[in-house]
Automatic annotation (TrEMBL):
It comes from the Bacteria. This is Transcriptional regulator, LysR family. Signal peptide: none annotated. Belongs to the LysR transcriptional regulatory family. It comes from Actinacidiphila yanglinensis. The keyword DNA-binding applies. InterPro entries: LysR_HTH_N, LysR_subst-bd, WH-like_DNA-bd_sf, WH_DNA-bd_sf. One of its GO terms (cellular component) is protein-DNA complex. Keywords: DNA-binding, Transcription, Transcription regulation. One of its GO terms (molecular function) is DNA binding.
Length: 295
């Protein structure tokens, strides 16, 4: 069925007059009258009683008017939704974050994205290790990831957000806590708490390479999956940890943070998504994430 005929019929039925309906539709009266005749012929029913002065609806016409209005409203709503989707202002997105981004970016990120894209339903998954995020991107259980490189898989694309300095989290009573800064070599003989090796943590590899280059044999006491657990164990006096500087947002009693020097090392944070994803709302969300980091 031609939707124009539905609109023509609704206009005539509401105006009860072909002339006024034609003016409303910005068209000549004869083509309008012919279109309604074709509609009645197609349906096999009389929708209108016509006189020289006015038009009245038949019982069938009244029933048809109600449904025609509903159909046109749905069509208009579908068009509005399609335009919103094309503009990237509606949709759903799940965003994963490594531990340090969870604490340093997630509060500002959720506020900024909600204000920038109020029609997009955002969900966030914090404390995700980088390999788990890459797996989740491939599986489609998250749409965007804030993670530590490398991101070497061709199916994913990544954009650098920032470089974070490394610091040392120490129990407040630790012998190194009184120093203004800590060298990697100073960690020789210190119990360490690190992210999980079994779960392929990027930070695990970074810390072990850092200590190896400094000639330090690591004394690992605990491996954990979440940054919050790592800092909690430091607060409990169970060891020290090398972490990205944004983790200092986790300010717990019993923990002090000291800059790591010699070498003064940084780790990258990137925003990543699947290479085959280019929906407007995803692109706008990635732009919003980059805005928050630049602010």
């Amino acid at each position: 069925m031609d939707l124009r005929h539905l609109r023509y019929y609704v206009a005539v039925a509401e105006e009860r007059h072909f002339g006024r309906a034609a003016e409303r539709l910005h068209m000549a009266q004869p083509p309008l009258s012919q279109a309604i005749r074709r509609l009645e012929t197609e349906l096999g029913v009389e929708l209108l009683h016509r006189t020289t002065r006015r038009v009245d609806l038949t019982e069938a016409g009244r029933a048809y008017l109600e449904r025609a209005r509903a159909i046109l409203a749905e069509v208009d709503e579908a068009g509005h939704l399609a335009r919103q989707v094309a503009a990237g202002v509606v949709g759903r997105l799940a965003i994963g974050c490594v531990g340090s981004a969870t604490y340093s970016l997630l509060p500002a990120l959720s506020r900024h994205l909600s204000a920038r894209l109020p029609g997009v339903d955002f969900s966030f998954r914090g404390e995700m290790l980088a390999p788990d995020q890459a797996d989740a991107l491939r599986a489609g259980t998250i749409d965007v990831a804030l993670l530590r490189p490398p991101v070497a898989e061709p199916s994913l694309v990544a954009h650098l957000l920032r470089r974070d300095r490394l610091v040392v989290a120490l129990p407040s009573e630790h012998a190194l806590a009184g120093r203004r800064q800590v060298r990697a070599a100073d960690l020789a003989g210190t119990d360490l708490i690190v992210h999980s090796s079994a779960r392929r943590s990027v930070m695990y590899e970074v810390v072990l390479r850092l200590l190896h280059d400094a000639g330090v044999e690591p004394r690992i006491r605990h491996e954990v999956g979440e940054t919050s657990t790592l800092v909690t164990l430091v607060a409990g006096g169970l060891g020290a940890a090398v972490v990205p500087e944004p983790v200092t947002a986790l300010s717990l009693p019993g923990v002090v943070y000291r800059p790591l020097v010699r070498p003064a090392t940084t780790v990258e944070l990137v925003v990543a998504h699947r290479a085959d994803r280019a929906e407007p709302h995803l692109v706008r969300a990635v732009e919003g994430i980059r805005e928050v980091v630049r602010a």
